[in-house]
Every structure is written in structure tokens, then in C-alpha cells.
Amino acid sequence: MSQTMSPVILEAMSLCRTFKLPRTSLSSARAERHAVVDIDLTVNIGDRLGIVGESGSGKTTLAKLLLCLDKPSSGVIKFKTQELPLADMAKFRREVQVVFQDPRSSLDPRMTIDQIIREPLECLNLQEDHDTRIDEVLDHVDLERKMRARYPHELSGGQRQRVAIARALAPRPTVLIADEPVSALDVLVRDEILQLLAGLTDNLGLTIILISHDLSVIARLCDKVVVMQHGRIVESGATENVFRSPQHQFTAELVAAVPRLPEIR
Amino acid sequence: MSLLEVTNLVIRFGDKVVVDDLSFALDAGERLGIIGESGSGKTITSLAIMGLLPETATATGSIRFEGQELLSLNDREMSAYRGNRMGMVFQEPLTSLNPLMRVGKQIAQPLRNHRDLSLKASLARAIELCNRVGLPDPERIVRAYPHQLSGGQRQRIGLAIALACSPALLIADEPTTALDVTVQKEVLKLMNELVAQEGSSLIFVSHDLPVVSAMTETIAVMRSGKIVEHTTVSELFHNPRHEYSRKLIDTARATEAEFKRFAIGTS
């Protein structure tokens, strides 16, 4: 387990994101929704951090903020001590990559697998042989190299998520943010993808931020966890401590609600 | 005689066979879980029983319910069963409820159609049903539109609609997949209680083994349109015969072991 020794790579301080809701009446002000409220978060290099919470708790908004795909209403995010957005965002994009929930909507249906994985390499202007790199990342995610010529609709859900992971790995990121990467997948496929992610974080020394509503997914992959409710972090710590002796009522409820197999003797 | 008897059911979309020679029976009060991956034909099977197959699908074989052959009925004859002797809860309550109709009226609809109740009497019954599915402040809830309710509340409404006419058979197709775990726990508990009180039979369709095994006594495992194994929950766990069942159980066990490593003694 990584200790506090390793340097900080991402840091959020007093992070807030407030959305204005649609106007419901001419004579009243627009209501606001506080999606992320006063969040402090430190991610060290090598962390496997889980973010868990129910739908609407602000997990995805937090992920978007950390990815610099959205601007905080207040608060600061630092990447390696520099405040986001950086002057040179390409550097950030190279180092921080993302895998989304549903590979059916996150992969462009009109592009081949080759084009999908090649895109970040070209956009980020990486000086290396792109063909070799595409083969390498396909190897990393256990997809056959001949898949390059295929289109997303020809692949299964699990294979598509492997492509999404390959695309994220292509620019050699240090941080991978995965937002519900397995919740759209069947149970057995889910297991394969989690194994793949665990292997990749080990072999490539990735820092991973995994967002999930499923505690068993977090237990499988993460050594640290933060629990979110109503936009706030209600509890955080080492996964085993948080799950074994939850301090907050909400965490205890989450842990107790995980469906268990019947006791069969 | 069984409540439901499905014999040699084959469902095709054009040349594509999605349900392949399926046979099973369900007694009154029995609870059957159908488990399988997406595309295995479990949803199409439940839709066929409800007479809700899309028009592009053709079904052959036999589905007998309370002695009546359902496949020979037209849509109008089928609608006498739907919401009456058979109820269904769908996966996503946001799409299965009518967004333009107050939920009270949606609960009242099967009562109006099948029980010949007046609007007033059916709305009063809708309030009772809301109460029964554990919704707070039912007088206010019946006047709400689906978008004003939370996911868990919407699924409780779905359950109230399905159970309004005390059906002999309730089909629940992934009823908690779209819900948060804490809400899932409550909805499953509620469904368990209500089905027991009503003495209804239950077909519970899911891809989630822990959830299915908590809700039913027997499980049918589906793969590529076929039932590859159909047995009791305990027999399935003790002695899974099909490779796919074994994988499902091993994965569920491994996931649980991993989780228990952290969360011992918390429940």
C-alpha cells in the first residue's frame, strides 16, 4: 500500500461546483444545486483511490472537475503543484486520462478501433511510432492486433471497454480516472475488466481513481476510498478501515446493503 | 396443474432465433429466478409471457397460463390478463411510467380497466396502494408526476401498479438494476413481503446472482436463448452442472470473499 511518502499528483482544495437549475417562475430566482461541496482531496502517485456514493452524490461532477472538463464554482485543483487549468493543457491531457461508463456511447461508431486509439496520439502530438504504440496498448488490454480494422459495433461490451482502456493508455498517462467502468457490463465480463485494471495499475505503475456505486468493485481494486453523500465527502481512509469499521452512518448503510450470497452449507 | 406452463417456446426476429426451445413450468406461489447475461433471451421470454413482444418477433410453441393458451390470443384478449392476472415491474421506472400522467391515475388504470371501479373509487384505492408500498404521504404522492419522484419511489409506484389487481403472477425484469444499493435493499424487501402476502407466483429476471438467490427458490440459468440449468438455489450452489453456472457462482463467491476481507462483521 502506498504511504504518504510518494509525491502528490492531484490535489483539490475547498472544491465547490454549483449548478443553476432551470427557471421555474419569472418572479423567483433560479434555484441552485450544490453538486460538489467543499471537497478536499489529495491523490498521491501510485494511489488506487475509490470514490463511492449513490447516484446524485456528486461523484461524476468531481471526476469532471479533476479532469478539467468542468470549471469549479470555487476552490482550486492542483496538478503536480500547478493550478489547473495549466498554460500547457496538452501536458495535463497526456498525463491524466479517462475511461467512461458506457463504451457504446464513448466510442465513435464511425471510427475504426485503429482510428479511435490513434486519435489521442495525434491530437497530443506524441513523437513516437503510432502504429507500434497502438499494437502495444492492444497487447496491454489483451485484444488481438487484427482488431484494429474493426468498428465498435462489431465488438462485445467487454471488448469495447478494453478499447476504451487502450485509448486511455495510449498517451502513457500517469493517472487514470475511471467513471463506473464496469457498471454497464455483465457480471463475468465485469470481473475480467476489473482483473485487467488491477493488472495494469500494477504493471504500469498507474495512479487510478475509480468511481463506482458498487462497494465490491472498490474493495476489489482500491486501497483508499472516499465516501460521498450530497456532494460532500463524509468519510475517507484506507479501504479496509472504512469498510470494516465505518464511522459514518451512511457508509455503514452502504456496506450493509451489498447483496450477499445465501448461506449454503 | 401448473399456473404457468411454457413448452417448446421459440422466438425469432426474422431468421434470428433469440429464444430456443424453452420449456418450464411454474406452480401457484412458486418463485423462479431467471439469470443470464445480456442477450441471453431472459427479457424477451418475460415479454412473451406478458404478450408484449414487438411485432417484428414471432413466437411458436406454447405458453399456457391458468389453463389458457396465451400465444393464440390477440392483443385485445391478452389485455384482459395484463395488469389483472399478471403484473409486471420493469427495469427502468422512468421509462416504464407515463411522464404526462399523475402516478395516482396510473395506479388507478388497471383497477378501472379490470375491476370496473369509478375514477373516485380507483383513486382512493391508489392511495391505499401507495401506502402499502411504503410511500410516505400517499395523498400527495398520487398527485405527483414521475419526474417529481426519486428512483426508489418510482419503482414503488411500478410495484403498486403491478400489484393493484392482486395478480396470480408477478414478473419483475431487473427491477432494481437502476437503483442504488441501499434503495435496492428496501425495494427487494418490500417485493418479498408483498409477494408473500398476495401469495403470487414470481418470475424474477436478473443478471445478479446474489439478488436472484435472495428472492427465489428455484433458478433457471439462460444462455443464448436456452435454459442450460433449472434447479433449486441450494442445488445450484452445491452442484452447478453447467460451465456457465459454475463461472457465475465462482465469480460471485470471489467478489464476496474480496468484500468480506474488508467488511467482516458489519452486517
Architecture overview:
The complex is a heterodimer of chains A (265) and B (267). With 265 residues, chain A is α/β, with parallel strands linked by helices. Chain A is built from ten helices and ten strands. In chain A, a hairpin with a 2-residue loop joins strand 9 and strand 10 (232-238). Chain B has eleven helices and ten strands. Chain B has helices at 42-50, 75-78, 93-96, 103-115, 119-132, 138-141, 151-163, 181-198, 209-215, 233-238, 243-262, and strands at residues 4-13, 16-26, 31-35, 57-65, 68-69, 86-89, 169-173, 201-206, 218-223, 226-232. Chain B has a six-stranded mixed beta sheet, with helices on both faces. At the A-B interface, helix 7, helix 8, helix 9 and helix 10 of A face helix 8, helix 9, helix 10 and helix 11 of B.
Can you tag this structure with a few keywords?
heterodimer; A: 265 residues; alpha/beta; Rossmann fold; six-stranded mixed β-sheet; four-stranded antiparallel β-sheet; 10 helices; 10 strands; 35% helix; 26% strand; B: 267 residues; 11 helices
The unreliable regions of chain A are: none
- Report the biggest beta sheet of chain B as strand number plus sense, adding barrel if it closes: 6 strands, mixed
Low-confidence stretches of chain B: none
CATH topology of chain B: Rossmann fold
* Assigned CATH superfamily of the domain at 8-102 and 175-255 in chain A: P-loop containing nucleotide triphosphate hydrolases
User: Into which percent range does the helicity of residues of chain A fall?
Assistant: 25-40%
CATH third-tier fold name of the domain at 8-102 and 175-255 in chain A: Rossmann fold
CATH class of the domain at 8-102 and 175-255 in chain A: Alpha Beta
The strand count of chain A comes to 10
